[in-house]
Design a protein that fits this description.
Helix content is 37%, strand content 17%.
Length: 417
């Protein structure tokens, strides 16, 4: 399996000109190739192949006065820029034909020199790691790398990234074997939220750190300072970098926290079940800022990636499953409830539930049932029944809730009255 290892790199003042020149050359080659393909489509000509594009926008262009400066940079990033264009077109065609899942992908667009995020990719022939730990890049030179950890294998490629805050990173791609962990018996369901970040079916709670909310005052001050600077001035450029650094700190802190939480869950649990939340829809509502701050999609992606690496399993429960409406004790569906209702009593059995813990237990049960009913398992009725059938919904209302005094076990960290 392929993994990425990212490190900070520190080019000297003299070396910063070479990456900047290479960024510009790669962008021009990309735009020239995109223009050629757009003109061919407009004129009804066949789709230009990559080899022909490479000869036209790189090899032949170097011999012209208008593009002679392309010869001052390494050819490897220029070729990789054309491959990025091929990938963009392939994603568009797959999206139109239905091969690619997810939201629709549009046609490639021209790159702008005003983009604050730039990238270059070098293959094996364009870089090497020196014995002194420095990274040698073609026509750029030796660059100092901050090795926070060792590479598990020889990298096949490296991508040089320049983020909006002015930091340089080297992202290596390595091919490693899965590191399968010893099996454990634990299986958990996770209910993600905003009041608490996650409630697990075993009763443990992960508090919501709210990184963006905590840094909001500092971000507002930096953004206000940026808005008062004259456009095009050097002071505005400095203020923009200050804002970008503040946002990068929030994003980096959140990512570090998500890595720690997902690693702990994967190491302690054999199977994890999550609900397929409609994050894009939730991010358009009144809780948009809090939803973006939580990073639920990143949390799920990291869990799936680490599960594939360490031999664990992640199950996804359909978003239409009413996890917050079902009683985890008897299976009765008690109807929808507003977010303000954090506890509710089942109208069938009278058990008092914590909303999030009950949802996590229902997600666990639904995920386990999906695994038992997966293709290849028993198909005849009565061979395997994952859980008891639920009673017929009776359409109860919140005002009709009754309590028998029986309380379900609470989640850790959630106060019980």
């Amino acid at each position: 399996m392929h993994l990425r290892y990212s490190y900070r790199i520190y080019p000297t003042e003299g070396q910063r000109d070479s990456p900047a020149r290479t960024f510009g050359c790669a962008r021009v080659v990309y735009n020239d190739a995109l223009s050629v393909r757009k003109e061919a489509r407009k004129g009804g000509l066949p789709y230009p192949k990559s080899t022909n594009l490479q000869k036209a926008v790189i090899t032949a262009a170097k011999k012209t006065p208008e593009r002679a400066w392309l010869a001052s940079v390494g050819v490897d990033p220029l070729i990789q820029s054309l491959r990025d264009l091929d990938t963009a077109y392939r994603n568009f065609f797959d999206s139109v034909s239905g091969k690619r899942q997810g939201r629709p992908v549009g046609l490639p667009r021209f790159k702008s020199r005003k983009d604050t995020r730039q990238s270059l990719r070098f293959t094996r022939n364009g870089f090497r790691i020196r014995s002194n730990g420095k990274l040698n890049l073609a026509k750029i030179g030796d660059v100092r790398v901050k090795w926070s950890r060792t590479l598990p294998a020889d990298p096949s490629s490296v991508t040089i990234l320049l983020d909006p805050s002015g930091r340089y990173h080297a992202s290596f791609v390595v091919d490693v074997e899965p590191d399968v962990l010893p099996e454990v018996d634990a299986e958990i369901g996770i209910d993600l939220g905003l009041t608490t970040y996650a409630v697990l079916s075993d009763g443990s709670v992960i508090d919501n750190p709210r990184f963006l909310r905590k840094a909001e005052k500092k971000l507002k001050a930096a953004q206000r300072e940026l808005s008062r600077k004259a456009k095009g001035s050097k002071n505005r450029a400095k203020a923009r970098i200050k804002v970008a650094k503040a946002h990068a700190k929030v994003a980096g802190t959140r990512m570090d926290w998500l890595h720690k939480q997902t690693t702990r869950i994967i190491r302690e649990t054999q199977t994890v079940y999550l609900e397929d939340l409609n994050v894009r829809g939730l991010a358009r509502g009144r809780l948009a800022k809090s939803v973006h701050d939580a990073g639920w999609s990143t949390f799920r992606r990291l869990l799936e990636e680490k599960a594939a690496r360490y031999g664990r399993t992640v199950g996804i429960v359909h978003r239409a499953y009413p996890s917050s409406q079902l009683c985890s004790e008897c299976g009765h569906r008690d109807g929808p409830k507003p977010l303000a209702v954090r506890e509710w009593a089942c109208s069938a059995c009278g058990v008092l539930h914590d909303r999030d813990l009950n949802a996590a237990r229902n997600i666990l049960a639904a995920g386990q049932a999906d695994r038992l009913n997966a293709p290849g398992g028993p198909a005849r009725p009565g061979v395997a029944i994952p859980r008891q059938a639920r009673p017929v919904e009776r359409g109860t209302r919140l005002g009709d809730q009754r309590s028998t005094g029986v309380r379900a076990a609470g989640a850790g960290g959630i106060p019980a009255p």
